Each structure stands twice: as C-alpha cells, then as structure tokens.
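Batch job 17 of 40 flagged for manual review because the log was empty.
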Amino acid sequence: MLIAGGCRKQLDYTPEVFLSAQQVYKDQAGATAGVTGIYKQLQSLKASDYALIGIIGTDEARCTYQSQGYGAYWAGVTGLDVYDIQFNSQNADVSGYWSTCYQGIANANYAIQYIPGIKGFADLSLQARLLGEAHFMRALFYFQLVQLYGDIPLRLENMSFSDGVKRSPVADVYARIISDLKFAEANCWVKSKNPDPGRASIEAAKALLGKVYLTQHDYQNAKTTFEDLINTGGLTLLPNYADLFDGKHENNAESLFEIQYSTDAGNSQSLQNLFGSYAGPPIPHENFDKHTPGYGGTVVMATKFYSDTVFAKPYSWEYQYDTRYAASINHDRYDGNGNTMSWWVDPGLPTVKKYDISSSDIDAYTSGKNLYYLRSADVFLMYAETLNELGQTQAALAPLNKIRERAFGNNTLDFSTTSQNELRDIIMDERSRELGSEGWRWFDLKRTGTLVQRVMAHNNPKAMYMKQNGTTDDPHPAQNVSAKNNLYPIPLSELQNNQALNLNSQNPGY
C-alpha cells in the first residue's frame, strides 16, 4: 500500500515508500501515515482530467470542438461531454476514475482492519479519530461511485476477493455509506481541533451525510442532519466570494472539506490548463503565457447558460451586481490591440475562472491551489432544497437568500414567496451561480431528474450554431445524451478481471 509523509501548508500526500498494510499499521506513527495516504487518491481524482467528471456533460461546462482533435485520449474526454461512441466501458477516464476510487477504498479498508489492533496509542481519541477519517474517506469514494455507476462491488475490510465481488444493489451501498459517515461523525474531531488542514472532521461528515440523504430523496433525515450541522457547526460564509478562489484564503472558515495541493512534485494540480484558453489574455494588454491566469489548452469552456444566461436571471441586468460573476467567469479574450476575440469559436469564448493560478503557483500545469469538496454555501443551498421538497417553501427562502445576500451585498435581490415548482428551478439556478464548475453539477442534475433536459437545452452547441448561422453542419460534435447516461458504463477491465462479473453485468445500453 501507499504511504505518505508530513508537510508545510497542509497534509502532504507525497508517496515515500511502498509497504504492506501489516508493516504500516504497527504503531501510532504508522497509522497516522497510513490514513494520511488515503487522501492521496482523492487528490489524484481531482488533479487533472478525472476532475472533469461531474463538470462537463452538464449545462455548465462543455468541451471545445477543438478538443476532439487533440488525439484519441482527448476524443475520449470529449465523449464524456457529448455522450457519443467514445463514452464507453473502455474510456480511459471512465475506468481511471473507477480504479482511483477503489484504490482509495482499499487503503481505507486496510486502516479500518488494522488500526483497532494497534497497541500503545498515547491518545486513544487519536486512534478513534484516524478510524473516523478512514470511514469518512471510504464513504466519500463509494458515494462518488454509486452515483456514477449504480450497483457496484462493495469491497470491505476482512473480505476475500479471490472469487471476485458481485455488484451490490444501490440501496446496500448507500446503507454502508451512511453507516461509515455516522461512524465518522462520532469519531472524527471538530474542524478547529484537527492538527492538519485537509483532514476529515465532524462538520465534513455531517455535511456529506446530509448530501447523501438528499441524493436518496430522504428529505426528513436530510433536514435533521443539516439543521444539526447549521445549529452546532458554526457554519459561515466568507464575506467576499472572490476570496474563495484567489489562492490566498485556503482552508478558510467557509470550507468544510478541502483537497490539499502544493507546488511540490507529485502534489500539484493542472486544472487551469484544461479550463484556460490559448486565444489571448482575459485582461487587455496583459502578458499571456503559461505563467499567467487564463492561459490553457482550450479543452473545456463555460456553456452560454453558465457564462451568460443563468447570471441574468431573473433580471437581465442582475449579473452586473452579482459578485460571483467576475470571480467565476473569464468572459472575454483580447488580441494584441485590446479587441475582444468572441469571433473565434471556441477559444475566444467565455471560460471558467475558478481554476486560474495565483501568484504562488508555478504555471498552468503546476498549481498548488486547493480545491473545495464541501463548503458551507453548498450546505445552505442543500438545506433550502430539502425544505422545499418537504413542502416548507417559505422556510426554504431563508437559507437560499443567505447565499444571495453574500453575492449582492444586501437583501434587495432576495427571492420572495413562490411556488414549490418554481423554487425547484430557482434553487438549481442558484446552485449553478454559487457552485458552478466545482464538480457537483452532473450529480445535481441526476438527483433532480433533469440531466437529459438541461444538457439538451444548454449543452448542444452544434444545433445552436446551425440554427444561429442558418447552416446544415457545424464542427461541434453532436450532443447524444439520453436516459441511459444517468449511469456511466462499468469499465471493461472490471468486467474482465472481477471473477464474479461478466460482460452481461454491464449497465443497460452500453
């Protein structure tokens, strides 16, 4: 198994040595190092193109038409966006995401199996905390997998895998996730007591548990969980939305669980290269190269819905006063004369700004900027959704408007009484404005049963440009999303190597 060592600004996941689980989990120091190593798989999951799962193939972000021409691998990435023939069981991202999650689960299983038998912990609460973290991380990886792939092999500690592991029903996987998160809630430490930023906490466990209940449409348990967290967890929002993404306010008061990066070898992420553009700088007459914000490979861009439409709702002028807009979107690109380049489809069109490097980063390929997994704003919006689904529409306005008041600086654009159905759409739009391209959108659309509808409406550039230009063809790939895409295909490698499965174990339609 993989071991990781100590660090400067946060948990350091840098691999140092490969040892057996028995060698690692022999004392307190080994247990601490082993559990720290579990976080490495989450860091890997979000460091590069695997992070696009949950972002592209939605109404918020899409691949540029240029990306399909970068080679077979990137054609596969584009397939995740347009759900074409490349979106299959041999897709490198589909299988890589799966295997990375299961590596994290395997490491968590080792910790859960061996830590209880370690003697000589100077502080028994530390032993319990490390077990809590392992259960949290296992729940996190299973939560990602079950939403994407449906029935999945439920590999646990002290299990024999020699005859393979059958796919467990979704309900059984969720039962294990909930059990793990309740264990984490009971044994992790509060965020303020954790020795290192980036470790799972009681607050993170409650937030993820509430999200799990919401995903299952178990609104009563979601309500109870969110209210407990809001009332006891000291949830707060940073006063300035832009501070969330400037690289200078990491592990802040709003952050509940944050994936740690640094510019050290093996600990960085390269997302600006995916979200940036090579067309020109997002600020007129600025220097522009791999060391400047906004530069990148023109792989992913914002949809028109995310870069324009949703910020102009319900009023067309609203985006001018929403502080989230300038912090989230690089709307224009400029040539050497300071002229906008919107004529250049797709490189000159709006891109996502949240992943732009800061002054402490090396370049677009080597960023130490942390990434959010859970933050308080998400909790408030999930709580609003929960209350609305319980028919408490008027009460849902308070947590929803808390988010808007941070965005606008006052309550003049608060939402007032509306119907339950109207508020469903309002909350989904508000989640996009607040959490856009942070990795939850695909899961939000699946949870609300709107994936196909919203993708066809807002991520179908081929049809849009053909209509706009009055042509019968366009270089953008066709959008093929359908109901079957509410599940990803099970990787072919799993069907071939897991003795309990075969090719007939595949999800429908693949």
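Reviewer: the log was empty due to a logging misconfiguration, but the result itself is present. Strands lie at 2-4, 15-18, 61-63, 152-153, 167-168, 255-259, 300-302, 329-330, 351-352, 371-375. Unflagging and moving on to job 18.
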